[in-house]
Amino acid sequence: MQKFFFLAVGFGLSTGSALAQAPATPSNAPKVKTAAFRPGELWYDTDGNLINAHGGGVLQVGKTYYWYGEKRAQHQEEGVNVYSSKDLYNWKYEGVALAPATDPQNDIAAGCLMERPKVIYNKKTGKYVMWFHLELKGQGYKAARAGVAVADKPTGPFKYVSSFRPNGNMSRDMGLFVDDDGAAYHIYSARENYDLRLARLSPDYLTATPQDSLLFSKHQEAPALFKTGGKYYLITSGCTGWDPNQASLHVADRPFGPWKPLGDPMTGPNAKLTFGGQSTYVLPVAGKKDAFIFMADRWNPKDLKDSRYLWLPVQFKDGQPTVEWLHHWNLNFFNNPSTKIL
Ligand code: GAL
């Protein structure tokens, strides 16, 4: 219901947001190199423009990280942006990785929604494969499809391949996960978001195989799957549209489960509402053991491009992942948690 409400009344609201007031290339935007994460604050790219990559995920290629996310106007979705970084703090804009099509008959015609894009690399084909949640132009959130695009380079341009309902199931919020053995999975909210399902991808990662099963029916979305110490962990949100809600953590020994609930992993002020955000990805930090960054979006439905990013370190307390609110932190935290700057 939330989604249709947004479509009906979302347009035409005034914004007054920081991003709306900021010129395209603000002369006063910080261009100095930064070495800290400031969750929820304005985050500029190396050109001095605000980063526009929502509902995103990160792919590491050699020493470079690529951050893919929804390019948002005030409401409209304008394709998938990609940024690159070597240090995770300073991001260079690499352009639109997947642009909406100009042909109005195309599945990804301008005006469609391409949400929650994630990119993985296929070692066998040498291709970068993007999956995203596709909603067809003018149909609200009815189509509930997964879309796939492919590229030779991490920065694209990605070429649209196809879209479908995996094994006939509705597919909205989603993530991708590549296991140590190269098997890749699509995790997705199905059956009007009541079910969370997992499908193993074909060897070329371009489609879902029939190995597709229900993980649980708890009305969860925004799935972010990661693995450490031989265990699979999954952070999800409830389903309240753009509004924040309580996060959940599950653990399993195998991707298809059984998945055991571990409660809410968030701690600190506003933890019960995921600090005002919604999960999108858990990013493994290269070269550090058990170093993961929980990535979330603090959505601003009045001006979606001004939605903010919450990047917080995953901590392991009694062997269980938790995410604590920090105003300000950097990667030294993973070497010594006492270096955290609250
Ligand atoms: C949320 C979802 C977002 C977006 C939004 C639209 O539930 O996580 O990705 O689809 O709904 O209302």
UniProtKB/TrEMBL annotation:
It comes from the Bacteria. Coiled coil: none annotated. The keyword Hydrolase applies. GO terms for biological process: carbohydrate metabolic process. Residues 1-20 form the signal peptide. Keywords: Glycosidase, Hydrolase, Signal. The record marks 173 as: Important for catalytic activity, responsible for pKa modulation of the active site Glu and correct orientation of both the proton donor and substrate. GO terms for molecular function: hydrolase activity, hydrolyzing O-glycosyl compounds. InterPro entries: Glyco_hydro_43, Glyco_hydro_beta-prop_sf. The keyword Hydrolase applies. Belongs to the glycosyl hydrolase 43 family. This is Glycoside hydrolase family 43 protein. The lineage of its organism: Bacteria, Pseudomonadati, Bacteroidota, Cytophagia, Cytophagales.
